[in-house]
Write a structure and sequence with these properties.
This protein is of the alpha/beta class. Helices cover 42% and strands 18% of the residues. The radius of gyration is 20 Å and the shape is globular. It binds S-adenosylmethionine.
């Protein structure tokens, strides 16, 4: 079992996906990659890693990269964020976009879609005045597997019960069997899921009024974070558009953004260029 190829593998993972691993996370590498190495007939995960570093990128590489992502998420994750969205951020955005009647939201690194669907449900529930608006919710992730699940809108009872109160569950979900619920089509249709790698090339996207980028940059090194933040900055629809990061994430020493502190959360806007 040779670990000689680990440094090359870490570099490859970081370059392709942004995720920074090192030897302190070998337990994670072994537990996540064991099923793939066994299924494909490798002697152990390190034999698989050696193969990956010596061959051009192919499906097995992406299978491995996907296995190393963490998909932890839940509906209405971080209630302070959703309270701020409901009480302050969305009302302000809606007021300033009342002429064009269009709101564009990007849930990036969306995992199984709970964040995007939470936003869609909130818009339906609390912002009835948007009935004649164009609401565009783009939800993206690097993992095709998780996106397939997100598109179905099917969640186990345990997933559905994490963060959702009974009112939302009854109103916006259908129980499809004893242990599973599916989001109703009216909410599913509000969200457009697609694959997007934050550290890959960026296809054309419209500008967004609200970008959610939560709990993914924690896995990246500073250099990758800065590149993603620059691109996100370019995707914001002007100075009053909003970028929200995860509770454990912040933007440090980056003059592109200014921090907007609210009661229990803070978020980011484009920094007004400083005049000389
Ligand atoms: C911990 S989940 C966060 C989900 C959601 N944003 C939240 O806060 O609940 C991190 C997600 O980031 C995705 N991810 C990791 N690296 C990525 C990349 N380079 N580009 C796009 N998504 C990525 C993973 O597939 C995973 O679904």
């Amino acid at each position: 079992m040779s670990k000689d190829y680990l440094p090359q593998f870490y570099a490859m993972l970081e370059q392709q996906v942004g995720i920074a691993l090192d030897d302190t996370k070998q337990y994670l590498l072994e537990s996540r990659l064991l099923p793939i190495s066994s299924k494909n007939g490798y002697a152990d995960v390190y034999a698989l890693i050696k193969y990956l570093t010596l061959t051009p990128l192919g499906p097995i590489h992406w299978q491995v990269f996907e296995a190393l992502t963490t998909n932890e998420t839940s509906f209405f994750r971080d209630k302070h964020v959703f309270e701020a969205l409901k009480n302050t951020i969305l009302p302000t955005l809606i007021e300033s976009r009342k002429t064009e009647k269009t709101l564009r939201i990007w849930s990036s690194a969306c995992s199984a879609g709970q964040e995007a669907y939470s936003l869609a449900m909130m818009l339906r529930e609390d912002f009835g005045q948007l009935h004649d608006w164009t609401i565009y919710i783009q939800a993206t992730d690097i993992s095709d597997l998780i996106l397939e699940k997100a598109k179905t809108g099917i969640y186990s009872a345990m997933e559905a019960n994490r963060g959702l109160d009974a009112h939302y569950l009854h109103k916006y979900f259908t129980q499809i069997d004893k242990g599973a619920y599916q989001i109703k089509p009216a909410i599913r249709q509000m969200v457009n899921f697609s694959n997007h790698n934050l550290v890959g090339s960026w296809p054309f996207y419209p500008k967004f009024d609200l970008i959610m980028l939560r709990n993914v940059l924690i896995y990246f090194k500073q250099d990758a974070k800065d590149k993603v933040l620059l691109k996100k900055y370019q995707q914001l629809n002007g100075e009053d558009s909003v970028l929200i990061l995860g509770a454990a994430e912040s933007i440090y020493m980056n003059e592109l953004y200014k921090l907007v502190p609210l009661d229990k959360i803070s978020y980011y806007k484009q920094n007004t260029p400083v005049k000389a």
